[in-house]
Amino acid sequence: MTTVLMNFLVEQKLIVIKPFHENGSLKDDLVLRSSDLTDLGNEFFKEVFPKWSAYIDRGGEIQKTTMLLKGLNKLQM
What we know:
Blueprint: H1 2-11, H2 39-47, H3 49-57, H4 66-76
């Protein structure tokens, strides 16, 4: 779940740090702070991430990021 989320954040330019090693693996010591996110990234975590997380908790498909993208698009309007 974390890898999918970090990929999404990087692709959408919502994060200002690099969460991956050169080989593409997630950094073991990764700690994400609000200061590591753009303003839109912080709004995303308040509004969109909890819904996606709940969807995953209910057995939703982790690789499906459609909900994340739709939520982000709403925030950008």
